[in-house]
Hints:
This protein is an alpha/beta fold. It has helices spanning 25-31, 34-40, 69-88, 103-117, 147-151, 184-193, 200-206, 208-215, 252-265, 285-297; strands at 6-11, 45-50, 92-97, 120-126, 174-179, 196-199, 223-230, 268-274.
Amino acid sequence: MHGARVALIGAPTDVGAGVRGACMGPQALRVAGLVQALQSLGVSVIDKGDLVGPPRPASPQDARGPHHLDEVIAWNRAVFDAVDRSLSDGDLPLLLGGDHSLAVGSISAIARHCHHHGRRLRVLWLDAHADVNDAATSPSGNLHGMPVACLLGHGPAPLVGWSGQPQVLQAADIAFLGIRSVDTEERLAIARLGLQVWDMRAIDERGLCDVLSEALQGLTADTHLHLSFDLDALDPVHAPGVSTGVPGGLTCREMQLCMEMIADTGCLCSLDVMEINPAQDVRNRTAELAVQAVCSLLRAATLAR
């Protein structure tokens, strides 16, 4: 979708997370100059503003989980509709999160669009976590740890099958990069489902260029590449403003290389930027890094290749 207008869609909620603060992520990205940075590159941008959804319940969470399911469903419906409209308008939707449970709505809308237009969807999940728990296996009950399970048809029933297919994604449609925090049940699910995971050990042993080249194999002109980018993929030394930081993540330079290589494919057609938590940040540093990443995705390489 080279040259498409970029449509910013804010989803200011942390209802799917256990830690408060990701609801401020969309505004932090705007304060960090996302619109101006993209426009300075000659990118056409339209800011659609923030979606509206139910507030986070004040009552304590049900210990059995999944927590705040009705509210997560409502927010995902709003995301689904907004992303669907942007795709219909020929725009490149850029979802500003918000917690990562919102990827159910965005990727479901993208999958339906791809199905209708005969395109193959490929999702790159850049994250410290695999997010493949379901309601029975989640140790926390927080839905931001379950979106991949929902997309693969194994999550809570009301969040499954939104694209019109029983499974929004097949295992071969998604590749994980930067994973380094996986609980026992998730490890079993990854093996059972045959998911493609390039964790931080693979990156350490082989280098990011080699690993990402393998993860991006098979893309064609008919591929719609979607990046779901959780900022906790970065090491918290560089990106402290996230809800669930995990030491040992990507460096700033590795992040830039990753974005530049994705841009080089020419296949990027949609993007989620998730889990920025200004309440945990230092002078909006994490949002500023996210802006740099988005600019690199949209061809702001240091030198033209």
